[in-house]
Design goal:
Elements: H1 6-12, E1 30-36, H2 41-47, H3 50-57, E2 59-66, H4 73-82, H5 86-89, E3 95-98, E4 103-106, H6 109-112, H7 118-124, E5 129-132, E6 142-144, H8 146-149, H9 153-167, E7 171-176, H10 178-186, H11 191-210, E8 216-221, E9 227-232, H12 234-244, E10 247-252, E11 254-258, H13 262-274, H14 277-282, E12 283-288, H15 289-295, E13 306-310, E14 313-317, E15 326-327, H16 333-336, E16 337-338, E17 340-344, E18 351-357, H17 361-368, H18 399-408
Parallel strand pairs: 1-7, 1-8, 2-18, 5-6, 5-7, 9-14
Antiparallel strand pairs: 2-16, 2-17, 3-4, 8-17, 9-15, 10-11, 10-14, 11-13, 12-13
């Protein structure tokens, strides 16, 4: 039979990394990075499953963690997994618009990312990674796609436990999409959304029980949050854009804008919004490419020459997402401020950090594993470590950036 043949045993054997786990500077044997998709800091705090509360109380957590803009799954995951902003890694939007040809093409996160991911960095340095669901199988030695198991939380955990038993990864990333899916379908702050988050919490508890007595570190994070969307204003804004000569494309919670004279056209758009009570209620801000978008690392022509951001409750779209009772992609606290918790071996207990960004996650995880950050990482190493080592270069947040990001949320 096949399993009795010698060559089959050779290709199915898993190389051991035991020697690497004793290397200098390594704080933990395994990092389990759990992404709870679509959960804001506020929503998690209100529901707070017991397992996550325990990890927070026995770990280091961030009071204000900013995800990137646009607060959309593909770009947000890529930024988290590489430590780079969307304008650097090139994964900017689910779809890229060419206003000249008026064509749209879908973005493949794995193929189009221009930067090294955390798993590629770990692999380069001799460590092994596994992933269950998610958007980062490039470079992973063990991966199970959401296409195979869906968003069922128990199935996701079952596959994660199998990965631990069969592959013994140094880095395991698990993505629970259920809360995001439920909020899109049933709405934000609904009983269904709360139940789905508690379900994720129970599955995290299963993973914690699995790792009892082991040198494991848990990282709990989210890619973006979610707001209610009850009113589409596409029909209201489309005539205004046409009157000002602006080409636009909507992504649910924001619209990208192009024009022949963008500086003048965007100023006229701001004046039109401020002069219309209905638009003042619906529009959060109009941003320019060289100011607000540049601050957020949103570089490149695919972002347009400006963007319009909407207040919670409103949507503008060129697709079908306006029908969702919950959506994201904008720049409000419920979309941008996400949970971030480090807990377990090598991490300070009961410690609060005031500020972080999701681009800081990959460099910090690499530090826990005693490795260099991804080559292109723009994030910093957070001060979560129980013991400092010579190879760790923990840094404080840039006060000017903290202030700038805070102003954008006002």
């Amino acid at each position: 039979m096949l399993h009795e043949r010698d060559w089959y045993k050779r290709v199915t054997a898993i190389p051991s990394t035991t020697g690497l786990r004793g290397m200098e500077g390594r704080q933990t044997d395994r990092v389990i990075h759990i992404i709870v998709d679509g959960v804001s800091q506020r929503f998690l705090t209100e529901v707070m499953p017991g397992s996550i509360r325990y990890l927070q109380q026995h770990g280091t957590w961030v009071a204000r963690c900013h995800t990137i803009w646009p607060s959309i799954t593909g770009p947000a995951h890529t930024a988290m997994n590489s430590g780079t902003y969307a304008g650097t890694n090139g994964v900017t939007l689910p779809y890229v618009v060419d206003p000249n040809s008026e064509t749209i093409r879908q973005v493949n996160c794995l193929r189009e990312s221009r930067v090294e991911s955390i798993v590629e960095a770990l692999c380069r340095q001799g460590l092994r990674s596994a992933g269950i669901c998610g958007h980062m199988n490039r470079g992973m030695q063990y991966f199970v796609s959401e296409a195979c198991i869906g968003h069922h939380c128990e199935r996701v955990t079952d596959e994660a436990i199998r990965a631990i038993d069969e592959f013994d990864p140094d880095y395991l990333q698990i993505v629970y999409f259920a809360v995001d899916t439920i909020q899109h379908v049933y709405g934000v702050d609904t009983d269904e959304a709360r139940e789905s988050l508690l379900w994720v919490g129970r599955e995290i508890h299963r993973l914690m029980e699995k790792e009892v007595g082991k040198r494991t570190t848990f990282v709990i994070a989210a890619d973006h949050g979610m707001v209610a969307t009850t009113t589409s204003i596409s029909d209201l804004l489309a005539p205004l854009f046409a009157e000002l000569g602006l080409t636009w494309h909507g992504y649910g919670r924001f619209a990208l804008l192009w024009g022949d004279d963008p500086e003048s056209q965007l100023e006229k758009l701001k004046d039109a919004v401020s002069g219309d009570p209905e638009l003042r209620k619906a529009v959060q801000a109009v941003w320019s490419k060289d100011k607000e978008l540049a601050t957020l690392g949103a570089r490149g022509e695919c972002y347009g020459q400006g963007a319009m951001l909407l207040e919670p409750g409103y949507s503008i779209t060129s697709g079908s997402s306006s029908s969702y009772p919950g959506n994201h992609g904008g720049y409000t606290e419920d979309e941008i401020l996400v949970p971030l918790i480090f807990s377990g071996v090598g991490v300070k207990e009961n410690t609060r950090l005031d500020f972080a960004e999701t681009v800081d996650i990959a460099p910090t995880i690499c530090g826990l594993l005693g490795c260099e950050a991804p080559e292109d990482a723009e994030g910093r190493i957070l001060d979560v470590f129980l013991e400092a080592s010579d190879g760790l270069k923990v840094s404080k947040p840039d006060s000017k950036r903290v202030e700038a990001l805070g102003r954008l949320l006002e």
